[in-house]
Amino acid sequence: MNRSINFVIPALIALLTITAWWLLNQPMDEPPWPTRIQGFSFSPMGIDDDPSRKRFPSIEHIESDLALLQGRAHAIRTYTVEDTLAAIPRLAAAHDLNVTLGAWIGPERNANEIEIKRLGEVLREGNRNLVRVIVGNESLLRADVTVPDLIDYLKRVRKLTWLPVSTAEPWHVWIKHPELVEQVDFITVHLLPYWEGIPLEQAVDYSIKRYKEVQEAYPNKPIIIGEVGWPSNGRRNRGAEASTANQTRFLRRFLARAEAEGYIYYVMEAFDQPWKAKTEGATGTYWGVYNASREAKFEFSQPVVRIPHWRELAGLSVVIGVLLLAFLYRDSSTLSKRGKGFLALITYAISTAAVWIVYDYTRQYMTPATAIVGLLLLIGGVGVIVLLMAEAHEWAESIWLRKWRRPFPLRSVPDDQLPFVSIHVPAYNEPPELLKETLDGLAALDYPRFEVLVIDNNTKDPAVWEPVRDYCEQLGPRFRFFHVDPLAGYKAGALNFALRETDPRAEVVAVIDADYIVIPEWLRHLVPGFMDPEVAIVQAPQDYRDADQNAFKAMCMSEYRGFFHLGMVTRNERNAIIQHGTMTMIRRTTLDEVNGWAEWCITEDAELGLRLFEAGHKALYIPCTYGRGLMPDTFADFRKQRYRWAYGAVRILLHHRHALLGLRPTALSAGQRYHFVAGWLPWFADGFNLLFNFAALGWSVAMVMFPDAITPPYMTVALVPLVLFVFKMSKSFFLYRRRVTATLRQSLAAGLAGLALSHTISRAMFGGLVTGKLGFFRTPKMAEAPAVIRALADAREEALFAFAFLLAGALVMLREDAYMLDVRIWVAVLVVQSIPYLASVLVSLTSAWQKLPASLVGVMSVMDCAEKNGVPQPVSREN
Q1: Strand pairing category for 627-628 and 517-518
Q2: CA–CA separation, 5 and 358 (whole Å)
Q3: Burial class (CB in 10 A: 0-12, 13-18, 19+), 217
Q4: Residue 867 — pLDDT band, cuts 50, 70, 90?
Q5: CA distance linking residue 210 with residue 193, whole number of Å
Q6: CA atoms within a 13 Å half-sphere pointing along the CA-CB vector of 758
């Protein structure tokens, strides 16, 4: 039955995916394209042509373009007579095309004079297919010239020809300047509702309405429509969406109305103009009926489909989804139907989004710059997919497991069969009273055979370590104290020293930090796990007893709880837990086999666990509290602790990369490799997010400095960080509420504390990649809380980043195109990217204010254990 579910659920979700593609691409009947339209706006620029760089098409190229339009239009409209474009009237005559001849009028007077002179030369050629002349194109709209200057140019051209003369402007410019109307023989109006943000369904009626407004204002002047069209790609302008389907629908609807009303019009435009991206942004490129390769971009008579190739894209998204899902389903026998359905839904959603984004991106004209950006986005996209899959997998396994594959049964073992345990307590410069509390807890253990070794390494002040030595003597022969100075290797060095001093009878070595107070049942409950000869590690979670001191510590405790009661639990299912250096037990013989603790590694505990897995040993984890320690007192200490953990993770992955990638033979299973790579993937994502942040700020600066040339990043790409942020926050919040049994305030506090560490983790990722050694940092306990100024100084990097993002967002909103959807989405990205940095500042300030009560967050309950069917179950108990 379970195996059939693995096929039924993906098949159903695949059918749902294809149905969604089908529903979004229903054919839409539209009026057919006329056999021969009135005219095209005609700029015969090829993919490599660029008039701004004086690169113009050849005569042969122009003639080829005119041949393509022959029989499909009565006329064409040109914009300039520069260079080879002056030959268009002569060439068009051979293809039965009339010409409305254009002269470009810009801000440079000398260039305008040269253009007028060339216009006169073309007019003197006497081409019979010339029907009218247009002097200037939106020159007033761009403020290139004044109205009196334009009128002067019009008067001069009228002296050169008997043809009717006008200029071309949008409808509102004509309404505003009746004095200009008096100087033209006809009105050339531009009707481009996309630029006015008019939704497609209203666009044709809107255009006709504006045409009639001009007609009513000037009833005695003939009117032609010099430009009418819609872009097939580019930015969304308020309610106006640029797409091929919308371009098709608008033009076919408008042409049907125009033919019925007898309008003279020129469709904007015949061919796409890639060179316009520099002057008009991405949208300016895509107004052509034909693309830059001279291929029709849409059907002229068939029903309109939003994405003509949707069947191929739907099939591709299903294939990718199946491949991804096959990977996730490889080891999902204990996952419920809901969990498998959730994974299938997420997987197909990811694959469909990926296919759509790639399709949408590749619809633009590729330049070296866009190709490089596309390649980088593809690499980043693969990383995003892997991250989302890993997050979704943890989500599913945390909520929808039918049963635990590796429960930890409580075993009753007679005292005479319990192994001898050596408990190691490494200490460095710890307050004596703190360490005495730890020793009192160990002295109260309900276990028949154990010893305690306290190793004080490198503490200089005798007043710190001597009281602990004396207290050990008071506690009896079970407690042995060692003060070693100097001792290399930091904590790992101290543990290796203790291993050499361990009683030969010891079969199990247990390690706790110097601030931990264990409960009496710790050894009696967990040591029986070693009755399985394959078990090398038995691990209990880290927990804390000082969360009630203030809001900061309550917040930190909420953040810690997620890893020890979510990530570690799912890892345990595949024998892939991360060993941590307190509340852990290791079989003595296996510890000797792998030569003890690695003194090269700053996170020697996790590294040892991975080595034991590589050797084929097992580890057991029980998510119940058996000992509690103290948390960092300040945000600075909290951050330094997390930096050390993240830095150590990178060094471990690099050191063991051949084993994790299967390049070196080990006993690691696929599940173990997966968890050790995927488990630390969110930290690597924080590292790459830092690179994205620098790029985002650089792009925003360019948008502010060069608003006419630099537009926001591609909208579908810009949406990715927003979706990723929402997904991760939703997952974290949902799992906290369901699995960690956290309150709403605790869940929010945990999310805030986690976000506050994002920048620290990102720095640690790069630090671990480029440096090989980091000095050990002992997390201070009971440190005096910093002042507010100190708290701000501790988070100064994050504060600067937050300020930079918010300032960038504000400045981008000052652009003239700030109303555009892609600009607003980009500003939303900038604001979202500032949130982790703002969280750092807020958490640092919270740590500075010791008087903020823990009740503002709520102190998380202790995860006690109650036996149910022989298996320890976590149950909540108030502190």
Answers
A1: antiparallel
A2: 31
A3: middle
A4: very low
A5: 10
A6: 28
Distance CA 316, CA 355 (A): 7
Contact yes or no for 133/161 (Cβ under 8 A): yes
* Residue of higher predicted confidence among 438 and 373: 438
Backbone angles phi, psi at 136, to 5 degrees: 90, 145
Mean per-residue pLDDT, 461-475: 95
3-class secondary structure per residue, 252-269: HHHHHHHHHHCCCEEECC
User: Which pLDDT belongs to residue 773?
Assistant: 67
Q: What is the model's pTM?
A: 0.88
What values do phi and psi take at 367, rounded to 5? -115, 170
Tell me the C-alpha distance between 222 and 219, whole Å: 8
Distance between CA 290 and CA 301 in Å, rounded?
15
Q: Distance between CA atoms of 264 and 222, rounded to whole angstroms?
A: 10
Residue 873 DSSP class: E
Quick one: tokens of 699? Answer: 């792009």
Q: Is 120 helix (H, G, I), strand (E, B) or coil?
A: helix
For residue 31, CA distances in Å to 198, 226, 246 come to 21, 22, 13
Max CA pair span of the chain: 119
- DSSP lists the bridge partners of residue 544 as 629
Contacts of 140 (CB under 8 A, 6+ apart): 147, 150, 167, 169, 173, 177, 180
Which tens digit of pLDDT belongs to each residue from 589-604? 999 999 999 999 999 9
- What average pLDDT score do residues 330-338 get? 84
| Cα–Cα distance for residue pair 149/143, rounded to 1 Å | 11
pLDDT for 5 beyond 80: no
Place of tokens 């097939």: 232
**Residue 227 forms beta bridges with which residues?**
190
